Amino acid sequence: ETGVTQSPTHLIKTRGQQVTLRCSSQSGHNTVSWYQQALGQGPQFIFQYYREEENGRGNFPPRFSGLQFPNYSSELNVNALELDDSALYLCASSWGGGANTEAFFGQGTRLTVV
Amino acid sequence: GQNIDQPTEMTATEGAIVQINCTYQTSGFNGLFWYQQHAGEAPTFLSYNVLDGLEEKGRFSSFLSRSKGYSYLLLKELQMKDSASYLCAVRTASGGSYIPTFGRGTSLIVHP
Q: What pLDDT score does A27 carry?
């Protein structure tokens, strides 16, 4: 158990809707990264938050946005959901803005868009 | 962009040794990671290499050659519980940002 918790564990949404996923980082960690993992693929980096600011972003459109709170927990928001957004969304917690040598993943949120 | 290649699937026998290769093409290299992911679970960290050479941790070892854009993960004394997907990830650094890129993963099947 890594101490990184995500909610909800499963979610079904309709195309065009908006969704918010949540991640509580491990105690002492100030960096949260978000990933999208399609079935049979590796995780794809969405973005990273360090001390409440985005400090790295992958190749995802602006309808993917996020927040990090003063307690370093984080949210991932996806607007105008598309069928291809169906995936496992993982967050990873670490210390040091992404320059660390290890990140701890949560169990993920399985999002299904119908 | 980054390009990471690793085999899709490998099989091995319990007690044997298996080597999973990963090749990459990138700029701004800032480290290579290996993660293990069991089906339906979160990835767990196995190893990190930033300098050339071999890092050993128990039954698992990881090797890096930056000039060749090549890494491997070596698993010794295979156990059934080692059946999982093994993810190679390369981190790049640019302007204070650190961006990890994962490969598709290698599904390892260990049979008796």
A: 86
Distance of CA A26 to the CA centre of its chain: 14
Tens-digit pLDDT profile for residues A59-88: 999 999 999 999 999 999 999 999 999 999
Residue with tokens 């868009």: A113
| Chain B residues close to A49, C-beta within 8 Å | none
Q: Does the beta carbon of A90 lie under 8 angstroms from any beta carbon of chain B?
A: yes
Which H or E run contains A57?
strand A53-57
Distance CA B103, CA B90 (A): 8
Q: Does A66 touch chain B (CB under 8 A)?
A: no
- Nearest residue in chain A measured CA to CA from B104: A42
**Contact yes or no for B93 and A99 at CB 8 A:** yes
Q: B15 at the A interface (CB within 8 A)?
A: no
What does DSSP say about strands B3-5 and A87-94: parallel, antiparallel, or unpaired?
unpaired
Nearest in space to B28 (alpha carbons), one of B82, B90, B89: B90
B57 contacts on A by Cβ (under 8 Å)? none
Token pair recorded at residue A19: 């969704």
What does residue A73 show for φ and ψ, rounded to 5 degrees?
A: -70, 170
